[in-house]
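pls read this protein:
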Amino acid sequence: MSGRRSCVRARCATFDDPAIVRTSGQVVGDVRLGRMTSIGDMRETFWTLHGSGTWVLPNPWDIGSAKLLASAGFPALATTSSGLAASLGVHDQNVGLEQLARHVAALTGAVAVPVNVDAERCFAPTAAGIPQTIHLLADAGASGISIEDYDPATGVLDPLERAVERVAVAAEAAHRHSVVLTARAWLTGQPAAMLPYFAAVAGVAVLLMVFGWMLYRITMPVLIERMSS
């Protein structure tokens, strides 16, 4: 993709932890651990991950959980709107854009893995405001950004034409920063209609747990016998 390695403007920022210093658009990481990584390389890594197969993208809600998950070996992290809101003592979709940008800057300054941002509706009632949100989050160090079609102001989903327009504008803005864009579509605005899907997922989870328990009961005696012989 052309322009993939372009970087946003440089600006120094120091956060509450004096050891975490980063230059927005240039390097990210924790200076105490010597892990300073180019944001261009970080975004390249995130692009590569999306072509490498299936992998897990966990959700930290603060610097501590981000460091813990990164140290566990996860190749990338993703912010969580509900997790961040809960950590601040507010309901989901009640965190402002400036608060989110500071949160993203703190996380990307603390870990040396790509960070995807749950940007909800991109904090823009119209498509014209989306590029500014993308720019602000990219400037905070995001390697990926998501946009969704649910409007909390009305409690309903965007009509298809409007959702497509918003995603197109977001994709163009994300491309300028070499940021991966994820377009998230809600199944329905009515939670009750989603229950069959949740029930199916729960059923699969129960089956997997039963299978794991049976496998444990079958293999454990064999392992114990081999270890004692």
Q: What stands out?
A: The chain has seven helices and ten strands. Residues 85 and 91 are 6 Å apart (CA to CA).
